[in-house]
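Standup notes
- DV: blocked on the single-chain target, sequence here:
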Amino acid sequence: MSSSPATQAPTARVIICDYNTLLQSVTGLLRMSGYAVFQAYDGQAAAELCRHMPDIDLLVLNTEGTGMDTPALVHAVRQAHAGLPVLHIGKAPIPGMPGDVMDLADSFSAEQLLTAVRSLVPVGRLIPASG
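- DV (later): unblocked, structure below
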């Protein structure tokens, strides 16, 4: 007998909006860590994914990857997902970004990224660490 998918732990859903090499490295690391990751090529694609996916747990943005005003993107996404946690990866914080958006310097380590993501994803959505 095989195990039922319904008995598996919930998977946190993360949308990543970026266009450069960070997209591949962040996506790969989060997937290897058990997160369901959906890639968006630009800000419009990220907004559309968020609008059509009801159970998003985190939006990860890179300053250069949105192709649009990044604070405006966050505000637009939060119209559909009020209070959605957002992680911004970049050289410096962006003026006009909501105060609760977490910034991570783009020279981060894998552990720094995972620590930031774990602090933003709702506890009930985290995947238990395997022994």
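- Follow-up: Strands lie at 13-17, 36-40, 58-62, 86-90, 102-105.
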